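B., you asked whether I could sanity-check this one before it goes into the benchmark set. Here's the sequence:
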Amino acid sequence: MKTYVIGDLQGCANEARLLLEQIEPGARILFVGDLINRGPDSLGALRRMKALSDASDGRVDALLGNHDLHLLAVAAGVQKMSRSDTLDDILAAPDRDALIDWLRRRPLAMFVDAHPEPACQGRFLLVHAGVPPQWTAAQTMALAAEVEAVLRGDRWIAFLGQMYGNEPDRWDDGLTGIARLRCIVNALTRMRLCWPDGRMDFAHKESDKGPEGSDLQPWFDLPGRRTLDVTVVFGHWSALGLVLRPNLVGLDSGCVWGGKLTAVCLDDRSLLQVDCPEYREHGGKK
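And here's what the prediction gave me:
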């Protein structure tokens, strides 16, 4: 059984359908998050992914991205929608509660041990945005599980009400409580550029590098990164585009911005892509 990972959908349900039609029946299909928002059919995208997941016995699944968490917070009444959100159809849908319940039970990280061709590395860590340099793959999975337990528990709404904020901006093993959970969420669902000491920068969202002369660099280029022994697969960064390195795969190829929706086969690194209309201008908030 081959394993495919698909980049950010952001409500582009038709493009998702066209891409899924290219994948052989029975394959494992994983999404790196941001199933919804900004695109034209967030409700259709979310319904389709839930239906596929429910019918697959775990073969189809999706990570939580920052837009997915935003929907949960809006639905819970602890966050306001922005003008660029395309969530109204979900919030008004008769199956809203079932969709929200399914979404909040999705993981924040996945570890996949694929069976690749000899030239490909077979251990993959999937996240939506990034992994701090201090974390190993095993630690990433354990920390993601801490947040997942809260989101799946009775206090998920209270947590979402405290989830937002840019501090702490650097991981420390001594973090506790909401500060610890917020730092985990920000790393896994929001991180792009970092300072050399590992501090996360949230100000620069629409470029693939920091301002000229700054020390900001992509999280995956930080020295001493402890996930170099696995292939990290991520999305979230449309300005960066498709990235294919021996131990790094970036899959946000700008579907909602007029780019492509991309799937990578983990077994042989082959790509499947669908061209997408420009549903949003690139100046829009990601």
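One thing to flag: The chain has a mean pLDDT of 93. Otherwise nothing jumped out at me.
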